[in-house]
Amino acid sequence: MGRYRKGFCIVVFFVALSLFIFSLMPFYRNATEYFWVMTILSVAFMVLSMFCLFYKPKEKEKAKLNSRYAKKARLISEAEYEFLQMLKQISPDKYEVVPQVALASVIDKKTNTAYRNELFRVCDYCFVDRDTYEPLLLVELNDSSHNRSDRRARDEKVAAICADAKLPLVTFWMNCDLNFKTVKKIVEKSILR
């Protein structure tokens, strides 16, 4: 409660208390037949000011967490950052490159099934039109972990979704030659398909 509001409530309480005492004095009771109005009003103001002084609203309960969380040091790895810098040099007057894009951000599910879990997969980069932000191309940068069977299944599902949505997807491998000229040629060819 604010300092001024608390002070105001205290003043109101003591003024009401004074009026209550004054309304009980015999000379005032004899002077007017409406003394009881001042008695009732002064009691009401005392109760109201006491309520304002001591009432504390319940604090909202904080969401309970079953786990502990910490902010990551980086959104993308050093290798992903270096590749992003290369991608940003490809026609920067036409395209923006956005890292870590969920499929749900660039693809809508057209069937009426309730679940969209498959669209919560994340692609490494998305080329968008610089003016309209229309998604034009998804880019994956894979390391050796994508050779595992579970990752291959995930990659196949992402490729199938992108093909169905008619959003091109290209995959580069970290262990391959990623020179700028080759990457630019592949990206521009894929966007213009």
Structural description of this entry:
This protein is of the alpha+beta class and 193 residues long. It has helices at residues 3-24, 26-31, 35-54, 78-88, 103-106, 149-165, 180-191, and strands spanning 95-102, 122-129, 135-142, 169-173. α1 (3-24) runs antiparallel to α3 (35-54). The longest helix has 22 residues, at 3-24. The radius of gyration is 35 Å and the shape is rod-shaped. The model has no long low-confidence stretch (mean pLDDT 85).
Itemize the secondary structure elements and their pairings.
Elements: H1 3-24, H2 26-31, H3 35-54, H4 78-88, E1 95-102, H5 103-106, E2 122-129, E3 135-142, H6 149-165, E4 169-173, H7 180-191
Parallel strand pairs: 3-4
Antiparallel strand pairs: 1-2, 2-3
Helix pairs in contact: 1-3
How many whole angstroms does the radius of gyration measure?
35 Å
Count of helical regions: 7
Largest sheet: 4 strands, mixed
Quaternary form? single chain
Main sheet: strand order: 1-2-3-4
| Fraction of residues in β-strands | 15-25%
Structural class: alpha+beta
Mean pLDDT: 85
Summary keywords:
193 residues; alpha+beta; 4-stranded mixed beta sheet; 7 helices; rod-shaped
Could you give a short description of this structure?
This protein is an alpha+beta fold.
